């Protein structure tokens, strides 16, 4: 599960063209993010969702603190940066990931990754409602097409509404995506004092503490978790690799391309996540799900094109 948005990965000085090395690293990042979804599903078979979220961000925070120290960027966030630390740490990392992992115990991974990546659509709506930024015709079309796709994926003809937690899980994923969209708007408005890489470990630490507290209260002590070799390998992939290492890749190489280019790269994450879920977990895709999937992806592409046009203006 990735928790980084293109607005954090590229800068105003980014160039529209990228070298082969940059493309290769970003493709690796997208593949690892996509594979983290089925890996998370497998880990959830033996680890409660909130504890898994806490372990993910706790291990990733340790790794990124080490990276920040080695690179000489380790420092306490300034007063100006604490709002973005709180926003990303509590809304995007804690809420999005916590709700997402709870949801994945009730819904299949293919549906989870797709609903989680409806964020660009909610960004259009949140910008409209919170900042009175009326959407363009293309953004409005993207929103309508995306909502039709979501309705198809969550309809009683596609998913069993009587299954325990099915509706709740889908709702949690959409709430998490909306929280992520609000954070994206905050990121765009924020004046950064420190780099995203310098703030990331603090954001992850801020997410870890309440996640661990909620996990202890709601799921009990982690003493019941059996840390065998398979689970340790999954946790290492989900935390240090797919979270901290991929963040370093994104911070280093994401800034070398445009935000539009990075948006197109990250569209590959749900594709890889869905394909990997079919191949590794045995998920099946119904005709209605494929129709909804096509509509949602069309909407996200339209939203990306609308964003590019807005930047040009």
Q: What is the helix/strand order?
A: HHHHHHHHHHHHH
Count every beta strand, where a strand is a DSSP E run of 2 or more residues: 0
List the total number of helices.
13
Strand content: under 5%
* Distance, first to last CA: 33 Å
Structural class: mainly alpha
Largest sheet: none
**Arithmetic mean pLDDT:** 87
**Large-scale geometry:** globular
- Radius of gyration over all CA atoms, rounded: 19 Å
Oligomeric organization of the protein chains:
single chain
Helical content (DSSP H or I, runs of 4+)? over 70%
Low-confidence stretches: 10-17
Quick structural overview:
It is built from 13 helices and no strands. By secondary structure, it is mostly helical.
Structure, explained:
With 313 residues, the chain is mostly helical. The chain starts with 5 loop residues before the first helix and ends with a helix. The protein has helices spanning 6-9, 20-43, 49-71, 82-104, 109-116, 119-131, 137-153, 166-189, 196-219, 229-253, 259-266, 268-281, 287-312. 50% of the residues are buried. The model is unreliable at 10-17 (pLDDT under 50).
Main features:
single chain; mainly alpha; 313 residues; 13 helices
């Amino acid at each position: 599960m990735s928790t980084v948005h293109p607005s954090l990965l590229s800068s105003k000085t980014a160039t529209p063209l990228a070298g082969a090395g940059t493309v290769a690293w970003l493709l690796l990042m997208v593949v690892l993010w996509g594979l983290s979804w089925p890996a998370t599903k497998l880990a959830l078979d033996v680890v409660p969702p909130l504890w898994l979220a806490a372990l993910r961000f706790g291990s990733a925070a340790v790794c990124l603190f080490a990276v920040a120290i080695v690179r000489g960027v380790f420092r306490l966030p300034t007063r100006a940066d604490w709002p973005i630390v709180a926003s990303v740490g509590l809304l995007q990392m804690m809420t999005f990931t916590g709700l997402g992992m709870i949801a994945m115990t009730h819904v299949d991974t293919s549906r989870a990754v797709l609903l989680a990546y409806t964020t660009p659509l909610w960004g259009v709506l949140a910008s409209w409602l919170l900042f009175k930024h009326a959407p363009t015709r293309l953004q409005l079309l993207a929103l309508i097409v995306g909502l039709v796709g979501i309705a198809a994926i969550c309809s009683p003809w596609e998913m069993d509404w009587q299954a325990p937690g099915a509706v709740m899980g889908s709702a949690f994923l959409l709430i998490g995506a909306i929280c992520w969209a609000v954070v994206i708007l905050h990121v765009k408005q924020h004046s950064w004092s420190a780099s995203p890489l310098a703030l990331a470990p603090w954001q992850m630490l801020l997410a870890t503490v309440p996640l661990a507290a909620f996990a202890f209260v709601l799921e009990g002590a982690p003493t019941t978790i059996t840390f065998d070799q398979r689970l340790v390998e999954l946790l290492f992939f989900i935390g240090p690799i797919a979270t901290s290492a991929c963040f370093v890749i994104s911070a280093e190489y994401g800034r070398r391309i445009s935000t539009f280019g990075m948006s197109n790269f990250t569209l590959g994450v749900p594709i890889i996540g869905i394909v990997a879920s079919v191949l590794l977990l045995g998920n099946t895709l119904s005709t209605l799900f494929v129709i909804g999937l096509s509509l949602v992806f069309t909407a996200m592409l339209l939203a990306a094109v609308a964003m590019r046009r807005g930047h040009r203006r």
